[in-house]
Amino acid sequence: MIKVAFVASEAAPFAKTGGLADVAGSLPKALKKKNVNISVYLPLHAKVASTYREQMTLVGKTSVQLGWRTQYVGIMHLHYDTIDYYFIDNEFYFKRHLLYGNGDDAERYIFFSKAVLAAIKHMLKKPDIIHTNDWHTAAINTLLDHYQKYDAFYKDIKTVFTIHNLRYQGTFDPYILDDFMGIPMTYFNDDALKFYENVNLLKGGIVFADAVTTVSKSYAKEITFPYFGENLEGVIQKYADKLYGIVNGIDTELYDPKSDPNLPINFDMRCLKRKKDIKMYLQEKYGLPLDPDVPVVAMVTRLVDMKGLDLVAFVLDEMLSLGIQFIVLGTGDKTYEDMLKDFHYRYPDQLSARIYFDQYESHAIYAGADIFIMPSLFEPCGLSQLIALQYGTLPLVRQIGGLKDTVIPYNKYTGEGNGFGFLNYNAHELLFTLKEALDLYHDHKTWTALMKNAMKADHSWKKSSEEYLVIYRKILGI
To answer: What is the CATH number of domain 269-456?
Structure first.
């Protein structure tokens, strides 16, 4: 049985800011079903609820050095939903309101990386593979390369590194190599962590991993080109032989329209009419006129440029002139928050801007909307379109990254498809595609067939977890 330590900076349901948490909360469960002996390592963030903390037990204490500082490492264990979770406890680093965006993020997550390696040794839980995710845990790959030269315990441990979003790289001043990581400055070279005049932790994650994955096949190809490569395309091209694209899945038990407790009414493919009842629930909740036949368009998203908010802003007046109701749930850049608040004020009967995030409300929006738009500038995978498909809500997406891999645009000649797509990052392509979708919305027979297509597809981790298992076996030579 393959032993895996899965390390992430966040995981649902304990602490979540984005899609990484959904993956870290669901992929290990899928791998466990494939007979992988997997444990998950997380920081004990302040936002981890007391209901979980009360079930944890202290299973070890150790320490790590960060320069002249000796820092405490508490190891808290929680067995939850079939998985063993190990939380690294240190209030100095993790008793914060924010998971990221603090001035000392380099120190915090290098501490976490060193603490995980110290914890597995302290508990004598040596894995065959450490699976790291994004820049916050990428230092583990570099540290392991260094430790393996001097400590027999760490020898033969392999690493898989998953890039969820290449834009966020963890670039810092070179002093962190000696002061925080405690490794020689020889790692500050172009073949290791040097990135212009800085240290790039994500680059180190790529260089020192035995296998690198991204969260869709299209994104794995896209990041080899300068437009998407975020100045790392050369490094990615160099290590292309160990790069794999594996599309994310979702927890289909959590997002199941037949049993989801967050919906006012449950439904399945045999009773799609009930979606209109959920739509009217949303209209009433968000102060929109009650009309079961008006097309409801939705976004549940971080309000940042990569999500295509610039396109939406450019044509939103025209979109609303098409007779839709528009619901947006999410927070992000103040520019986009203010833009949506302004439209909410100007079109109170058509647009409801919910400038916050509520996991439970999001389920009802996914289920009650008719069309879910994701006009992304770039999208490594995207989970929202998978969730929307699960509820029979048709995604309208820019055909990029994981959106291209998971949403099949409607073909009027064959009847195939589970959504709508446009190619270029162009506001009017978004608008024209929405017009086409709305024309089809009034064709009840075709629209119902598309909803069923959406719900029939397998959005689970079943296939993707098997692909991870193939990579695990390959790097272990078994």
So the answer is: 3.40.50.2000
